[in-house]
Design a protein that fits this description.
Helix content is 31%, strand content 22%. With 655 residues, it is an alpha/beta fold. The strands form 8 sheets. The protein has an 8-stranded mixed β-sheet, with helices on both faces. A 7-stranded mixed β-sheet has the order 5-4-17-16-18-19-20, sandwiched between helices. Strands 21-22-24-25 form a 4-stranded antiparallel β-sheet. The chain binds ligand 6R9.
Length: 655
């Protein structure tokens, strides 16, 4: 970015106070901010006491060798014991932990007592396969209960897991197995996706032919789809039901150091090989447990929590597995896609299980907007009391739609900013405290220190933009990049001395609240102004005909970059709109009116789909390639690479 701060263009005036009933009974009140401000480490030491420690920590933070942090270093605990056994010991064995809903409609209800038996059996099975504390286990599974059981079994025996999203290819899997030096892979014959079984085991077989994966001794295979003709390597492959089912359901958890590695999770980023983000035990569990309790106001006796992420992403790790289960929550685990067999599937699930708290991503909210308001209107969504968003900036209009059409215009929406690297939520409203602003994550949570700085590392005044930085270490921070301490320092701690560089653009509004503006790499430079893609996208989405927009800066001889927008029309507009040229003109005028003439897109192209990563984030890099008439860069992380062919086909040959 140039020296000029990000333009602060978007003005969003709508405000929503917390519902009085929720505020009166909220788990966390405004006092928490005061308490954490007065004694930040004392605050986190208190949160650590949410957990059951075999040895209580006496030291909170060791920051003597920055940026390598140790939290609660002299404490010992077992993470799986905290997520499962202690609830059973507290008499909650009959509470439902997981309401599993398979895509074909099969269901399983798993109580905490059953989860304890399943996790114990799986821990015994991994031990029989020779896995010891410290050995890495790769997990490549669909969204089925065995994924949660496998993660907890690894945690129980101190074997760091490395989940690889089931939609990734054999190559991606091989790279990750190799980098983490995994000894066992847990997979399934397949999973259900869009109404049909989709095989997984062949990708494992192929990955294990690649150099660097020779140390994998065993492949543990869950039978999920019952597909015929699963290729089998004798001596290496073993069925879950053969090995795990015959194990004892008793297993004594051993306590590990708070800094014992819990998992490695790879983030791809735009360049270079994937980074293995390393998380450890005590600090990670403290922050995921606390933030789940605070941000979602969890009442474990009555709430039904549903995080729609895949367990293969950090959101699934922290808010399907470790946060909710450490809090004794009852959750929904859904295997499939939101539109199988119909576009109301999610809302049907909310109605069926009485979901109280839904945590999802802007991409899903915008898809629901596109499909039409009448679809959620057919279901009883009155059980919902809190709605969460994560993964991308949420456009104010999508935020308001979510609250209105899913939340009956009454539920708070919490827009939660965090990253694989931060491990847990960092910036978010608190549902019983914060007066919310559509599109803003607003305030660092109690105990978290974040701000926005300019190129010279100076904190920007209210009303200005720059880079988001975290100014103090936090319990669930990544500890390093697996096997590459130098890359950890270079990537996160070198841009600004002593501060964590998140790679996101952000601004502070007049109240000092934080608005996320997208990845710094995506910021556009137009006639000397840094303009955020997020703000232009939000202006487009505020037009009634637009469900979703992606904006990029394309090289331009006059203005350095020219704003180029790709838009998806809402269901109703799609059918009605006959005159595309007139709509495009209307949209350009609309953006100019909302944000000012500088932000008026030079080109706007209606398209059917946008390129997304498998976790639902828009890949602007590829759209930039299209807008600049270049050959497309790496498309391997796209959900569906045919999307790009469709977009290119829509383009006039010369810009
Ligand atoms: C949890 C997760 C991290 C990146 C992050 C930022 C974007 C996530 C956001 C958000 C604006 C939010 N992001 N939440 N941007 N508002 N509420 O998504 O982790 O996959 O590592 O992505 O996602 O750009 O830097 P991860």
């Amino acid at each position: 970015m140039s020296n000029e701060s990000l333009a602060n263009l978007l003005k969003e005036e709508r405000r929503f106070a917390p519902p009085a009933g929720l505020a009166a009974k909220a788990n966390v009140t405004a006092e928490a901010y005061e308490q954490a401000k007065a004694d930040r480490l004392g605050f986190w030491a208190e949160q650590a006491r949410r957990l059951s420690w075999a040895t209580e920590p006496t030291e909170t933070l060791d920051w003597s060798n920055p940026p390598f942090a140790k939290w609660f270093a002299d404490g010992k605990l077992n993470v799986a014991y905290n997520c499962v056994d202690r609830h059973v010991e507290n008499g909650l064995g009959d509470r439902v932990a997981l309401h599993f809903e398979g895509e074909p409609g099969d269901t399983r209800t798993i109580t905490y007592a059953e989860l304890q038996r399943e996790v114990s059996k799986a821990a015994n099975a991994l031990t029989e396969l020779g896995i010891q504390a410290g050995d890495r286990v790769a997990i490549y599974l669909p969204m089925i209960p065995e994924a949660v059981v496998s993660m907890l079994a690894c945690a129980r025996i101190g074997a760091p897991h490395s989940l690889v999203f089931g939609g990734f290819s054999a190559d991606a899997l091989a790279t990750r197995i190799n980098d983490a030096d995994a000894r066992v892979v847990i997979t399934a014959d397949g999973g259900y996706r869009r109404g049909k079984p989709s095989a997984l085991k062949p990708a494992v077989d192929e990955a294990l032919t690649r150099p660097g994966t020779e140390k994998v001794r065993s492949v543990l295979v869950v039978r999920r789809t019952g597909q015929e003709g699963v290729a089998w390597t004798e001596g290496r492959d073993v069925w879950w039901h053969d090995l795990v089912d015959r194990q004892s359901d008793q297993h004594t958890p051993q306590a590990f150091d708070a800094e014992h590695p819990l998992f490695i999770l790879y983030t791809s980023g735009t360049t270079g090989k994937p980074k293995g983000i390393l998380h450890t035990s005590g600090g990670y569990l403290t922050q995921t447990s606390y933030t789940h309790h605070a941000v979602f106001d969890l009442k474990p006796e009555t709430d039904v929590f549903w995080c729609t992420a895949d367990v293969g992403w950090v959101t699934g790790h922290s808010y399907i597995v470790y946060g909710p289960l450490s809090n004794g929550a009852t959750e929904v685990l859904y295997e499939g896609t939101p539109d199988t067999p119909h576009q109301g599937r999610w809302w049907e699930i909310v109605q069926k299980y009485g979901v109280t708290t839904l945590y999802t991503a802007p991409t899903a909210i915008r898809a629901a907007m596109k499909w039409g308001d009448d679809i959620p209107a057919k279901f009883d969504l009155s059980s919902l009391r809190i709605l969460g968003s994560v993964g991308e900036p949420i456009n104010p209009e999508a935020w308001v739609w979510y609250r209105k059409h899913i939340g009956a215009d009454t539920t708070p929406v919490v827009d939660t900013w965090w990253q694989t690297e931060t491990g847990g939520i960092m910036i978010s409203p608190l549902p019983g405290v914060t007066e919310t602003k559509p599109g803003s994550a607003q305030v660092p949570l109690p105990g978290i220190a974040a701000t926005v700085v300019d190129d010279d590392a100076h904190e920007v005044p209210n009303g200005s933009g720059g880079y988001l930085v975290l100014t103090e270490p936090w319990p669930s921070m990544l500890r390093t990049i697996w096997g590459d301490d130098q890359r950890y320092i270079d990537t996160y701690w070198s841009r600004f001395e002593g501060r964590y560089f998140a790679g996101d653009g952000a601004k502070k509004d007049d109240d000092g609240d934080i608005w996320l503006l997208g990845r710094v790499d995506d910021v556009m430079l137009v006639s000397g102004h840094n303009i955020s893609t997020t703000e232009v996208e939000s202006a487009l989405v505020s037009h009634p005909s637009i469900a979703e927009a992606a904006v990029v800066g394309a090289n331009d001889p006059q203005t350095t970059q020219a704003i180029c927008a790709f838009v998806i029309l809402r269901g109703s507009a799609d059918a009605a709109q006959t005159d595309e040229a007139a709509l495009v003109e209307e949209l350009r005028a609309h953006v100019a009116k909302q944000l000012g003439p500088i932000a008026k897109p030079k080109r706007i192209l209606p398209v059917a789909e946008l390129p997304k990563t498998r976790s639902g984030k828009i890949m602007r890099r590829l759209l930039r390639d299209v807008a600049e008439n270049r050959t497309l860069g790496d498309v391997t992380t796209l959900t569906d690479s045919s999307v790009m062919d469709l977009i290119q086909a829509k383009l006039p040959s010369a810009p």
